[in-house]
Each structure stands twice: as C-alpha cells, then as structure tokens.
Amino acid sequence: MFRTAVRSMATSARQSLTIGLIPADGIGREVIPAAREAILAVQSELPQVKFIDLLAGWETFTRTGTALPRETVQALKEDCDCALFGSVSSPSRKVAGYSSPIVALRKELDLYANIRPVSSVSADRTQPPAVDLIVVRENTECLYVKDEKLIHTENGKEARATRLITERASTRIGKIAFELAKARSRKLLTIIHKSNVLSVTDGLFRESVRAVPGLPGIDGRFDDVTIEEQLVDSAVYRLFREPQIFDVMVAPNLYGDIISDAAAALVGSLGVIPSINAGDNFVMGEPVHGSAPDIAGKGIANPVASIRSAALMLRHLGYVSAADKIDKAVDDTLAPAEILTADLGGKHSTTEVTDHIMGLIKKQYN
C-alpha cells in the first residue's frame, strides 16, 4: 500500500533496534500495544528489538506537573533509535504550565516532516486505489509555535497569534516532498498555500518550495517532478470532489494538519491513517487520530492507524520487507471488510482486529 511512502535511513550496520513506546492518553494506551505486536510479528527480519516504555501526555501532567518529562526526552535522545507515540488529550482551555507534548517532541528531536499517506484499499487488487496520496506537513512552524497573547483594550479583549514561516524550514520540507514525489509513479507535487491573502508568510513558503529544484547540489534530480499549486480552500474542495488529482501534497503546519484529517474521511476513518514524524536522525510513528476519550477503555478503538504507523516507521528505517508484511496483512484485513472496528462499520474489538492482522502476518512466514 505505502510502498514508496518515505525515504529510508541507512540501517546496514545496526545490530539492535531500540524503540521508545509513548502511549500517552486515551486510546493511545490501547493501540500502541497493537503496534508493538506487529513489530514483534516481523522481528525475524529486524535486528534484536528492545522496547522502552516512556511517559508523556495530559494524564502525566495531572500527576506530575509536566506533560513531557525530561526523562522521556533524554531516553529518546540517548537510548532509542526510533519511537511510537499514541495520542494526547489536550484541554480546550488554557491550563497554566501545560503544553502539548507531541508538539514539544517534534521540536526537541527536530522532527520537521510529518508524512501522512492516505490510501484506500480495494477488494480488487488489480485496480489502482481510488485515493492514493501523501500529505507532507511542515512540523515545526506556522501557528504551532504557540506565540499567543491576550490584550485588554478599551474595546474589549484582543487575542493575537504570531505565525512563523522561515525559508529554512520551508526549503527542507520541500526537499522531502520532492523526494517522495520523485519516488512515486506519477511524480506530481502540489504546493498548498493561501498566498493570495497571506502574501508574505504563505508567499515565502510557496517560493521556497518552488526553488528546491534549482538549489545547489540538486543537479536536475527533480526535473521529472511536475509542480502544481492549490489554494488551501480550493484544495479541500477538490480533495472531496476529485481526490485522484492529488499525489504528493506539501503544506505549512496548520494546513497540512487539516487536509490530512479531512482526507481520512475519503478512506473510511481517522482510525486507518498513519504518519511518521521524521528528521534527519530520528523517526517517530504516530497514528493521526486523537485520544478519543468517548471510547477510551471500551476496547473498540481501531488499531490499524497505529499498526500502519509502525510499518511506516520501519520502512523509513530501511526495513522494507518487514513493513511490506505488516501492510499486506492490514490490506488483507480491510479489503474483505469482515473484521472491522465500529468506526468502519464493523462490530469487532481492538483485540480481535489486532489478532486477525497478526495471524495474517504469521501466515506470510509459513
């Protein structure tokens, strides 16, 4: 399914693979164990695997006063080769001392690219999927720098937020997007922006991405990639009307977040959409869905996004065969539409879906 989803990091010399597990909040504690099982199911194709359980999230904050303990960051930097993050619950109101741990982790580890493949699975494997695209989201800037302030004026309160777009961040996310587009058969990259209104910030993002093919050292590598543009509002409209026109989409942080969540509706559920947060030296898998407090603890959360994220992470690390086996087992579960959780119209539990996928992985080794 996601055979050309991400570039690979060199792995030939690695003798072991230490994976940090951060379930965080809500259904993260139910779906990250499923991802762990998937990795163990393909461990014969991996170096010796070791897991480290780590803490982060709103519940950690309520217990300890910090949402991202320094011990977690230190373990990721010093002991782990990669990580899996579950989901985080964030209050809708301002809480003194609290900030999102996933946003903080992306900055701490310089995970500047959030890569979110969205693809449908058809029962007829001879036909191309109706939806097959990748959203490449810049992960460190835009409004997510969280530079906000509330001002009291004679006319009442004013809330202001600073939006940060830099040439450096826009260029490096552009490089990732071009690499992904080049690796795919259509070789099409669509830049998402709103520079007709935000001519300075979105204008810089657009210009920086477009300039990537002409950078020193590129040497014509992206000459076969077609570049298109879409205003973000038009892109959302066309995404629902004609998703087949998109291949790789690159966007600033906020737009990328919204577009990828919206695209999930085209393939059934947020519960099947994986992602990785990638930098030059570290990668962290993360299902796109949230903590889903309304179903947390009921055993009905969809484990597919988490399992797909584990495969995406392994593929990025260079363990392509292991990732292929996980993805095939998920495809073979989703296509017949017989063993599904409630978000996809089924009636099976998290455990039942996980067990079915694990059984299909094991069959590939027989």
Mind sketching the topology for me?
Elements: E1 16-24, H1 28-41, E2 48-53, H2 58-64, H3 70-78, E3 82-87, H4 101-108, E4 113-119, E5 132-138, E6 142-153, E7 156-164, H5 167-183, E8 188-193, H6 201-210, E9 226-231, H7 232-241, E10 248-251, H8 253-264, E11 276-278, E12 283-285, H9 304-317, H10 320-334, H11 350-363
Parallel strand pairs: 1-2, 1-3, 3-12, 5-10, 8-9, 8-10
Antiparallel strand pairs: 4-5, 4-11, 6-7, 11-12
Query: What is the 3D shape?
Result: globular
What is the terminal separation in angstroms? Answer: 22 Å
Mean pLDDT: 93
What's the CATH architecture name of the largest domain? Answer: 3-Layer(aba) Sandwich
CATH topology of the largest domain: Isopropylmalate Dehydrogenase
Number of helices: 11
Strand content: 15-25%
- Element string (H = helix, E = strand): EHEHHEHEEEEHEHEHEHEEHHH
The radius of gyration over CA amounts to 20 Å
Low-confidence stretches: 1-5
Keywords: Magnesium
GO cellular component, one term: mitochondrion
Domain Isopropylmalate dehydrogenase-like: 18-357
GO biological process, one term: isocitrate metabolic process
Report on this model:
By secondary structure, this protein is an alpha/beta fold. The chain folds into 2 domains: 1-109 and 295-366, Isopropylmalate Dehydrogenase (3-Layer(aba) Sandwich); 112-278, Isopropylmalate Dehydrogenase. It has helices at 28-41, 58-64, 70-78, 101-108, 167-183, 201-210, 232-241, 253-264, 304-317, 320-334, 350-363; strands at 16-24, 48-53, 82-87, 113-119, 132-138, 142-153, 156-164, 188-193, 226-231, 248-251, 276-278, 283-285. Strands 2-1-3-12-11-4-5-10-8-9 form a 10-stranded mixed beta sheet, with helices on both faces. Strands 6-7 form a two-stranded antiparallel ribbon. Helix 1 packs parallel to helix 11 (350-363), helix 5 (167-183) crosses helix 6 (201-210) and helix 10 crosses helix 11 (350-363). The relative contact order is 0.17. Residues 1-5 have low confidence and may be disordered.
